[in-house]
Write a structure and sequence with these properties.
With 354 residues, the chain is of the alpha/beta class. The protein is built from eleven helices and 15 strands. Helix 3 runs parallel beside helix 4.
Length: 354
């Protein structure tokens, strides 16, 4: 027993010495770790080895309600060499850059509507796209009527900053002609047909927000539909007919009611009224499952999650009886999820970026 105590004491002593050494060397160790991090992650391009097909990245699955684990609404779609982003919620573009998605190669931004949580990340997106590729023309921004007003505001707000960037880095790195965004109004129907990718805008019901769009992507026999923000809509069902993947917004009223009750009890009457109001222009997980079943999609992914749910332990409470209404797989979306629909296949492969 005494011998065992001596060994334990010796082991503890060694650990203390190592810990003290690590503490004294923390600056050098930190520098070494950062050097290795930069060597393996800085400037990487995770799209370089993707198989040909459609790839969907959830760059933001949150809402205006604070959620430390979710950026604002943002979805990236890759079709061959084309990269399109749908909505640019706060933190979405930074997520993409962190995961190794080449933000500088984004070909266009599609806006579903003009609620602030869907566009408050446009500034960082424009900057990273401009500086990441030495762009000589602004980011194309497609959206419903009103998109010109929105982008005029962003361009005005960032005009001084754009000038500073060019003055500092020079016109070769940051050409003045590439800054900002160029708005183009699109109406429901086909809005993109290039390099095999067809994008169709669909008018959805998010009243009093009008117009509001969802989008369908078709590429080499694979298809994805993004609902945008909407109440349950036969238009979405029709647009999603036969699609491989439906990414649909979702709000669980039972959980929102708990949040409303807590806010009211705290005397936060204004915010409590807002959480009461939001239930009438969104879609429950159960209703989204009904839409997916009627449309015959292969997989349903829920995004724009309301209210925030801390972890996957709460997924069952969020879903309610949605799983019993849809015969396919239902995924509660989280930032970093990527779904790959390879051309010539019927499979949907999923992984998480980091």
């Amino acid at each position: 027993m005494a011998n065992m105590r001596k060994k334990i004491s010796l082991g503890v002593g060694v650990l203390l010495v190592l810990a003290a050494g690590a503490w004294l060397m923390r600056a050098s160790l930190g520098t070494l770790l950062l050097e290795r991090f930069a060597a393996t992650r800085a400037g990487r391009d995770i799209t370089a080895d993707l198989p040909d097909g459609l790839h969907v990245v959830l760059c933001g699955t949150g809402s205006p309600l604070p959620d430390p684990a979710r950026a604002g609404p943002c979805t990236l779609v890759i079709a061959g060499r084309t990269i399109v982003i749908v909505d640019a919620g706060e933190g979405g573009a930074r997520n993409l850059a962190r995961w190794g998605v080449p933000v500088g190669r984004i070909d266009a931004l599609l806006l579903t509507h003009f609620h602030s949580d869907h566009l408050d990340g446009i500034g960082p997106l424009m900057l990273m796209r401009w500086t990441g590729r030495t762009a000589t023309s602004p980011l194309p921004v497609l959206g419903p009527p009103g998109v010109e007003q929105v982008m005029a505001g962003f361009n005005a707000a960032y005009a001084l900053d754009n000038g500073y960037r060019t003055a500092h880095h020079g016109p070769v790195i940051t050409p003045p002609s590439g800054a900002g965004g160029a708005a183009r109004t699109v109406m429901p129907g086909q809005v993109w047909n290039r390099d095999g990718l067809v994008i169709t805008a669909i008018a959805v019901n998010h009243r009093p927000v009008s117009p509001a769009y969802g989008y369908r992507f078709d590429y080499k026999g694979r298809s994805v539909v993004l609902s945008g923000d909407t109440a349950p809509s036969v238009v979405v069902t029709s647009a999603a007919k036969g699609a491989d993947l439906l990414v649909h917004e979702a709000l669980q009223p039972r959980l929102v009611a708990l949040l409303t009750k807590a806010l009211a009890a705290r005397g936060a009457g204004n915010t409590a009224q807002i959480t009461r109001d939001i239930t009438d222009y969104h879609t429950t997980p159960e209703a989204a499952a009904d839409i997916a079943q009627k449309a015959g999609v292969k997989q349903l992914v829920l995004s724009h999650i309301v209210p925030p749910i801390p972890s996957s332990l709460f997924d069952a409470a969020f879903l309610g009886d949605a799983p019993s209404r849809f015969s396919g797989d239902i995924v509660v979306g989280r930032d970093g999820m990527m779904f790959s629909l390879t051309a010539g296949s019927t499979a949907i492969a999923a992984r998480t970026l980091n």
